[in-house]
Amino acid sequence: xxxxxxxxxxxxxxxxxxxxxxxxxxxxxxxxxxxxxxxxxxxxxxxxxxxxxxxxxxxxxxxxxxxxxxxxxxxxxxxxxxxxxxxxxxxxxxxxxxxxxxxxxxxxxxxxxxxxxxxxxxxxxxxxxxxxxxxxxxxxxxxxxxxxxxxxxxxxxxxxxxxxxxxxxxxxxxxxxxxxxxxxxxxxxxxxxxxxxxxxxxxxxxxxxxxxxxxxxxxxxxxxxxxxxxxxxxxxxx
Amino acid sequence: xxxxxxxxxxxxxxxxxxxxxxxxxxxxxxxxxxxxxxxxxxxxxxxxxxxxxxxxxxxxxxxxxxxxxxxxxxxxxxxxxxxxxxxxxxxxxxxxxxxxxxxxxxxxxxxxxxxxxxxxxxxxxxxxxxxxxxxxxxxxxxxxxxxxxxxxxxxxxxxxxxxxxxxxxxxxxxxxxxxxxxxxxxxxxxxxxxxxxxxxxxxxxxxxxxxxxxxxxxxxxxxxxxxxxxxxxxxxxx
Lengths: 238, 238
Hints:
The structure is a homodimer.
Chain A: H1 2-15, H2 54-66, E1 72-75, H3 86-89, H4 96-103, E2 119-126, E3 131-138, H5 151-170, E4 173-182, E5 191-202, E6 205-214, E7 220-230
Antiparallel strand pairs in A: 1-2, 2-3, 3-5, 4-7, 5-6, 6-7
Helix pairs in contact in A: 1-5
Membrane topology (chains A, B): Peripheral membrane protein
Pfam family, one (chains A, B): 4HBT
InterPro entries (chains A, B): HotDog_dom_sf, THEM4/THEM5_acyl-CoA_thioest, Thioestr_dom
């Protein structure tokens, strides 16, 4: 089981990684790195930065510690401009001219804010239990009702975490449905933990669920269920 | 019915407007304006800008034309830094020190991108049919699967549109649940129309639904249902 999980993670890395994860070197696919290519910056944005609160740093360190025996894996993520990968994505976006124009500026949505202003997060996958955990700190640009995160910002991190859990399980996949119950508002700047898991697999369909809890696990902020569908490389999306 | 709707919209303006809508002058609460206050910029971001495509401009003009007889109302929106309104929001965020620190940089999530990069949108409320329409152009920073909008970006605009529809109907409200069916991916840069409506009111609960269609209305991209709950000013959220 453990070997199978690591194998899936390595395969994703060789294929170029999930959306938002830039191509990684074959030798050590999960090590953080930075390249000053003129077009693509391979900077892992899921590592601690000065905007992270003490709670974020402590949680990150705890999960990195848990990753030492290989049962957990830290999942790096990038802005992914995709300019090196236009050939790969023609299958999903057949109008090459429009694609080039639109994608030249494209950035992964949850990674498109400056440091500390938007979504600060790191994800870890548990290879034994087949689940993904996201530690998340919501910045001041994610406001909805004054002082609290916008429902769309919460939905975004839920979708991103469930999506990563789905991708590790079955490869490239898209959200087909998302059902969220917002139980308590999340204050701006606070740190929460998103726990996601695969509930059922039916062919290309993957059923997942998650919850968002406070760091001390006492407060449940949101719960969600979702359906993801594996993308068929032979099928165009448009 | 028409008078009641306009009255509700005016009352919201006098109260300071819905989240993301800055306080408006009593004389003409719906006219666009700009003030160069050192702290709050009252610039209506739902007006056409150079990043808008021809489709966006045409749709905007069509809805502005429909607004001439008063049956539709253009709903302006702002980044809303809320620095003038800390007294008003203490009821929802009782820790005054933390509130001041967190809210000094706070921006309404869907308005926190630079022009053309994120959410470009304008909303109109139909006072006869009690429904809100949002015309939306998704910028390159909202990417999920390469070439398409992130599920979280779609959820954000759905939540924002349903939220505005709820606010016009019952006053300040928060999302309690959101159920989205993503039927087709939305290409980056395309323009879509979000049609939302109130389905049922039960005390403080408001049930709404919406769909996202292409400009020619032939393609249904997403459908959603939701429950919003009216906020009680006497109840603290934390």
